[in-house]
Amino acid sequence: MASQKQPGRPPSLPEYPDTGCGGLCTSSLNCPYPVCRLDDPTVVDRGAQEARYAEIRRLRGLGHLWREIAAMTGVSMRTVARALGQRR
User: Fold this and answer.
1) Which of 64, 67, 71, 88 could form a Cys-Cys staple with 59, CB 3.0–4.6 A?
2) Are 70 and 76 in contact (CB under 8 A)?
3) Cα distance between residue 74 and residue 70, in whole Å
4) Within a domain: residue 56?
5) Distance of alpha carbon 47 from alpha carbon 54, whole angstroms
6) Considering the domain boundaries, does residue 9 fall inside one?
7) Is residue 45 part of a domain?
């Protein structure tokens, strides 16, 4: 049986677990940080960075040029060089 909407009440939202962002923050509602580290542009997501670098190395292994890799992955030539551990 489908639940009926009650007039004047907003639809109920699905339950989402409040697991925080990791580290010291195990609950977003009780976070000890003044600014969420996921919203801070200076915080580097190491997992995403390593995945991006691995993709750059894979493309280079296939013979793509640095400028092609930069265009394909949406990063700068400097990032490609950094991922490959080389200087231009």
Assistant:
1) 64
2) yes
3) 6
4) yes
5) 11
6) no
7) yes
Tell the residue number behind the tokens 């991922």, with chain if given.
83
Give the contacts of 46 (CB within 8 A, at least 6 positions apart). Answer: none
Q: What is the pLDDT of residues 47-62, one digit of tens each?
A: 788 889 999 999 999 9
3-state secondary structure labels for all residues of the chain:
CCCCCCCCCCCCCCCCCCCCCECCECCHHHCCCCCCCCCCCCCCCHHHHHHHHHHHHHHHHCCCCHHHHHHHHCCCHHHHHHHHCCCC
Looking up tokens 């919203």 gives: 39
Is this prediction's pTM over 0.90?
A: no
Cβ neighbours of residue 2 closer than 8 Å, sequence gap 6 or more: none
